[in-house]
Amino acid sequence: MEFKFDIYGKIERPVAEVFDAVYNPAKLSGYFTTGGATAPLDVGAAVMWDFADFPGAFPVYVREMVHNERIVLEWQASNGDYLTRVQMDFESLGDARTLVRISESGWRETPDGLKASYGNCFGWSHMLCGMKVFVEHGINLRAGFF
To answer: Which band of pLDDT confidence, cut at 50, 70 and 90, is reported for residue 7?
Structure first.
């Protein structure tokens, strides 16, 4: 069985604004990478993400980026020396709303891989909720959460 997950949610803002909340390091750091993100998510970049509540920055490799449509990243699995793949899709719903889908795959099919996949599913779900609150209301949901 392949370990992967897909989550989604709607954000009450135009797709360009929602996409920029992930692509733009200053905005991403306002609700997710609270220790900072070193650069925009441009293809070929190795961007360092840091979380103030989880010490230690780590690289995120940008494999694909289509403005206002998709970002594909790879990063090291928390349980090993291999990469998992994260895909974020942004779909305009035409009425100043955006559907965001996030999927991750690539864990080894072991008990540790399963555990890591559940942990990341939690993390991306929290990121999506945090993005909604930040983009719609300017509130950092992550502050003090962990």
So the answer is: very high
How far apart, in Å, do the first and last CA atoms of the chain sit? 31
The strand pairing partners of 89, in sequence order, are: 70, 101
Nearest alpha-carbon partner for 101 in 6, 16, 33: 6
What are the residue boundaries of the structural domains of the chain, listed by start? 4-137
pTM confidence score? 0.94
Mean local confidence (pLDDT), 79-90: 93
Q: What is the 3-state secondary structure (H, E, C) of 43-65?
A: CCCEEEEEECCEEEEEEEEEEEE
At the fourth CATH level, which superfamily is domain 4-137?
START domain (3.30.530.20)
What CA–CA distance (Å, rounded) separates 57 from 75?
12
DSSP H helices in the chain: 15-23, 25-28, 111-137
